[in-house]
Amino acid sequence: MSTQLTMSSSAADCCAEMTAMSRRGLFRGAALAGATTVFGGAVVTLSGEQAYAATPVESVIVVVSLRGAADGLSLVVPHADPAYYAARPSIAIPSGSLLAKDGFFGLHPALAPLLPMWNAGTLAAVHAAGLPAPNRSHFAAMEAVEDADPGSTDRVGWLNRVLGADAFTSPLNGVAFNPLLPTSLIGPEPALSMASLEQSLAGNAAYQPGTARSKSLATMWGSEPSSMGAGMRSTLSTTPALGTALAQPDRSSTYGSSDIGRALSSVARTLKAEIGVSLVTVDQGDWDMHTTLGTATKGPMLDNTTSLATAIAAFFTDLGALASKVTLVTISEFGRRVQENASGGLDHGWGNVMFLAGAGVKGGKYYGRWSGLQNTLDADVPVTTDYRSVLAEVVASRTKASTAAVFPGLTRERVGVMLGQ
Questions:
Q1: Is the distance from CB of 209 to CB of 175 less than 8 angstroms?
Q2: Which domain holds residue 386?
Q3: Is residue 168 part of a domain?
Q4: Coil, helix or strand for 336?
Q5: Pairwise CA distance, residues 154 & 196, whole Å
Q6: Confidence (pLDDT) at 220
């Protein structure tokens, strides 16, 4: 049994906290989440014990986490705010390069693959969203964002509360395409994580249903009372369903070569198998750009934005008719400062942008309240919309869960980005 975590060079060279969190914090989270088991190349993590049973799915929520704190001012540019260009003499996106411009905002040019969705009214952006108070620690901010229950000592994620409030019962209702469960899915309700379909038990050559090995494992863990036993029983019960997903056509070549592309390709295959998946999380990393963020024509910001847009566009195309059931939302732990630093990058900030795409989204529009930017060393994007109010509209529009149960203590403010909200 072995576990391997590979750090990308950009993360390792940047924020020390991101490096420490990636190497140690994720494994700490796995220990708290439930059982983590490795079969050859397959890593599976479960929270809770539940036998698999397919359930009809009316809607699906896909959460894309932009790990490392994406710069919302580059993704959605406030071109009419004079402080933006004054604060970023070398990294600002030229106004003439922006897409979907209105009188104040415009999209980064690398978001071009998503322009058809914007024009069709199925893609929107909410700016100046974030935590109610600044939190510039990657790890603490991620925990706070995904727990979404300020002041609570219970480590239960908001997506896990959706599972409980909407009476989902299968470990396949909540799935993370990540080797380990994120905080958002941790809690008493069963959930499953896997690096990809190929690295699930269904795709692992070391484990094949119906073989002597699988029968031995079933016997070994059948009456084991520990959390590992509970996790293993749940894992083994999902394998036939995941095999159905694995058998779906692989169109990953249309998603680009990025990690987010491969992850969303796995999500599409899983959803098309109709095996009961209702809530999904995937990650895109390397947004921690303290140095050399780049320009509109080169650099890591351009590369990451291109990968994100290419993958999301391919995902909705790949879904076909099933796209009418799927709502995707992006989130990042915090944003970046207004003013570029001496290294051509951006330091940890506060407010950020959230994208929403797909079913139920009132798209082709920028949402949120803008209070203006300041061109000073420590200036943030002020948060005018609690990110939980954005997520609450998604939950209220796309699930049967009570938003009061999912976001305890939240006084919802109307954002208006989802139909019926």
A1: no
A2: 9-406
A3: yes
A4: strand
A5: 29
A6: 75
